[in-house]
Amino acid sequence: NMASRSKSLKCDACNKIINQKCNKLCCAGNCGTYFHIDCVDLSDDENRIISKYGTLISWTCSGCRQSEVNNVSNANSDAEVNINCCQCSEYIKILTDQIYDLSKNQSKMRKELSFLLSENSKLSSALTNQAEAVGDILLTDNSDNDNTFSYSSIVKKSVKNKIRPSNISDQDKSYRNESLITKD
């Protein structure tokens, strides 16, 4: 039991033990301490990068970052500049990959949005046409004086309403009806 206690890690932020099930970060700076991921103030993007690339990411705690900033500003050594450039190139590669992925996703989403807008327009137009047809049917006289409508009667009346010429005067209609009757 003493051996397991000596090997257990403690979070430098909360001083609680970090068990194997916990998500943890190890500072790559001079301190080399461990932290619960939840105890470190990470942005959503940082969380996503760390979960995707794991050990490829070199993370430093705020204390070490501050001391690195102080060291870099005070140092004139080419070696330190090269180390920082190497770390930057890793981040640039990761960010470039993410920008490429985001660009592909954005392109796909634009195509999908365009398709959905087109389909929405078609459906809206079809719905408007159907609503107008049903409205026209309901406004016409029901020959049976029955207020029940079957699907076939609605379609039949809709077809009649679409075929019926709307610009013929009532006199012309009665004349045509009389001429049709007398021809039989």
TrEMBL record:
Keyword Metal-binding: yes
Zinc in keyword set: yes
Coiled-coil features, chain-numbered ranges: none
Signal peptide positions on this chain: none
Domain of life where this protein originates: Eukaryota
Pfam families per UniProt: PHD (PF00628)
Chain ranges of the PHD-type domain: 11-64
Molecular functions per Gene Ontology: zinc ion binding
Biased composition (Basic and acidic residues): 170-184
Entry keywords, A to Z: Metal-binding, Zinc, Zinc-finger
Sequence segments annotated as region (Disordered): 165-184
Transmembrane segments: none
InterPro entries: Znf_FYVE_PHD, Znf_PHD-finger, Znf_RING/FYVE/PHD
Protein name per UniProt: PHD-type domain-containing protein
